[in-house]
Amino acid sequence: MFEDVLRSFLEGKISLSETEQVILRRFYEKTEELFLDLERDKRQGFPEVIFAAGKTVDHVLSAVGKFLEKKGIAFVSNVDDEKKNAIKSRFGNHHIKEAGRLLVIKKEKNSLEKTIGTVGVITAGTSDVPFAEETSLILEELGVLVKKSYDAGVAGMHRPFYALKRTKDSDLLIVFAGMEGVLPSLIASATDLPVIAVPTPVGYGFGGNGIGALTTMLQSCVAGLLVVNIGNTVGAAAAAVRILRKIRGVQGGKSARDSGVNKE
């Protein structure tokens, strides 16, 4: 990524201070109030997602503009109606997809070719679907095939097994649940696939707003159940992509299959 910079430093063409500044400029885009991590996808395999909550409309628009300029795509989470309308107004000539409170803005219409794996996305109830859709949209834009099975909660004991049947060819599962949050444990007990559990702020009374679901998932008796924070749709997608990229040997946006390595 910056071998040429290091070579220039070793050859004495630029100073240590200049080397540091050049590297920082390649990694980040800095404004008065923003410090955007433009190359996070190259380091971590998952891009920076602009967190809209708490930012002004101008901050969000500026960040989106920079990502579109440098990367051709911008992901924005926790978008309220005001910021969503502002983004659509400013970038109406771009391709925009939305799910829940997530927006994806792109210069090009097409998503990445599906190369890095398959994820099963399961929800306990219909109220969990907006959260699942956010994660699914991120995954699809990053080259993941998503298989969905919604409203599979334990209030009907047959439903989780139907969901497992629909997603059986997946590489891993992401399971969303509010209320008492038991579905991820049940799913994880019936499959050898990795399971990422996402508690959602769905519920009422004692333990409502996702607290009960999070507690249940953290206290699960099923070994190896992975749990993210309440409503953390981005974190669930990032965990899934990291796992898929590792097991499929994906580097620099291409899989080993695409680059001709380890072909069967």
Write the layout of secondary structure elements.
Elements: H1 3-10, H2 16-27, E1 28-30, E2 35-37, H3 40-44, E3 50-51, H4 57-70, E4 73-77, H5 81-90, E5 95-99, E6 102-106, E7 118-123, H6 129-141, E8 145-149, H7 159-166, E9 172-177, H8 183-189, E10 195-199, H9 211-218, E11 226-227, H10 233-248, H11 256-259
Parallel strand pairs: 3-4, 7-8, 7-9, 9-10, 10-11
Antiparallel strand pairs: 1-2, 4-6, 5-6
Helix pairs in contact: 1-2, 4-5, 6-10
Description:
- The protein is built from eleven helices and eleven strands.
- It has 264 residues and is α/β, with parallel strands linked by helices.
- It folds into two domains: 19-106, Ribosomal Protein S8, Chain: A, domain 1, CATH 3.30.1370; 118-248, Rossmann fold, CATH 3.40.50.
- The chain has a five-stranded parallel sheet, with helices on both faces. A four-stranded mixed sheet has the order 3-4-6-5. Strands 1-2 form a two-stranded antiparallel sheet.
- A hairpin with a 2-residue loop joins strand 5 (95-99) and strand 6 (102-106).
- The longest helix has 16 residues, at 233-248.
- The model is unreliable at 253-264 (pLDDT under 50).
